[in-house]
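Record 1 of the preview.
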Amino acid sequence: MAKKAAAAKSREIAVEGIFGPGGLLAQRHPGYEFRPSQLAMAKIAEEAFQKHQHVVIEAGTGTGKTLAYLIPAIRSGRRVVVSTATKSLQEQLFQKDIPFLEKHFAPRLKAALMKGRSNFLCRQKVHQMNGQLIFKGIEEIDWFAQIRDWEKLTATGDRSELTFLPDDAELWNRIDARSDLCTGQKCTEFQHCFITAMHQRAHEADLIIVNHHLFFADLAIRKDDFGSILPEYSAVVFDEAHEIEDVASDYFGRQLSSYRVEELGRDTEHMLRLLEIDSAPLRREIVRLRERARSFFDCFPGPEGRHRFDRAERNVFLEQNREPYDGLVSILQRVESELAALRPKPEEVTAMARRAAELRRELVFLIESEEKSYVYWYERRGRGLFLVATPIDVSQILREQLFDRFDTVILTSATLAVGGRFDYLKQRLGVLPSQENVLPQEFNYPSQALLYLPSGLPDVRHPSFAACAAEEIARLLEISEGRAFVLSTSTAQMKELFERVRDRVHFPLLRQGTAPRSVLLERFRQTPHAVLFATASFWQGVDVPGAQLSCVIIDRLPFAVPSDPIVAARMRALEEDGRNAFAEYQIPEAVLALKQGFGRLIRSKTDRGVLSILDSRIQRMQYGKIFLESLPEYATTRDIREVARFMEHQAR
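->
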């Protein structure tokens, strides 16, 4: 009752009194500046919470959309889940925005941060490993000693606190709290468990901050009536909502990888050592599991990348590889049986047996299923092989499991509309919003950015394109004095352009793939006049404000590769329904990707820079108008001398 009374009192102040000139934000936020689009968005969000509506809001960079949805969420008096695209954005909300709101607007606010289980330490595993000789080298021994000391002090057990532990440290996989070996309430550490504490905080919270992966993992569990990860709620805000179709497709799909089978063997042996269980038959079966898995996964042809694996391909595969397939199914069943036969049988053993059974069921489904609502494919990635079944269309699933089940869903991002309309988003996600809004941009794009569309370049499919594009890139880099992203639509194209440009310019060049993404980004920020050549993973979620990034060059319009199994299946489904797959799927997807790529450049009201598209189709083809209409109102030129004048003005 007290919480509802406080929320009611808060609502006595109109939204204008918070976000308007001279309002509470102006009085309390050190970086406040009045933004009409922020006020408009806050009004829309407030109405959505009050009237229990679904709304879609495109709000460009600089809108201040985080506070525009957080404050109405708090004022609603309801439990609201906020889902972000990344863990880093989650942490920013929780560590920066929430404390500000608690201090100035909602002193009694209870907020909780939730991440996937693999982000947290398992106390039981740490205690079991203590004193055992199961480490791989001096480095692991040192890391474990630091983790053991940290475990006694940390309140959260969140890996993000361990700044000394490398991202790829295999030790963490043996001590994290993933569910595969969790015994739940039967664990002696249950009351002191970091996962238990996280869930308790969430059950007491008004505001729960999650990421899209955890949100859809929870939604998939709810769909199959396997319980839930999140506590009950009635409203959700999706920030960076343009990503949710892909994430939802992952969690409502099925997957098995060579890594998961390897991990079953490794974790079983590790468990036997920790629990001091002596089972020679099970150890022999684990050896056979590795042999059978290697034999099976080696049967898949093709280079790195995704490969179609529909019914016809799977039939041929089974005809040619029935023995290794049956062998892997059989050995998984025997591992499960040996685990089930162990006496005494701690709960950890039961959990491992369930895991073996789940892998066997996934394998049989992925090879033998005839369900037509999925697209079946496999991918070679590094030394791993991934078998996947992805829903061709998640719109009906999302409509039934999300939009019909929860009465308020707010979808927001800087890139949701195509040509000012939300038809594509509504079709792909199955949402029927009460309101849909493209808010005015907060930046003065005509004066801050120049869009350069060079004339005379050959078609991107012509053999001479790469050489001509490299010359154009070199000219642009000389004008911008480096300080640029060169973004490509494929790794092969990126590497070719990098090799062609590297001897033409004297600036420090960085290339994606030569170091971890975070390391490359930090090098770019710290290296004067640097140029970064990159692909899709740098098209979004990258923030380099200021003059260090003054030019973004995109080699081709980012159309999805039509041979990709998921793209091909979704296009085929539209065509079978009598629709134009290119116009209704490929173009909107490419428009949103292009908007994301160009969004890297102008991040504040003082940023200025040049954007360039080297793909002549944006000028020659009828659909080019849709791309240009979807971008902000940049000043545009086809004359490179205008680019030079613009950059000279920036230097002054």
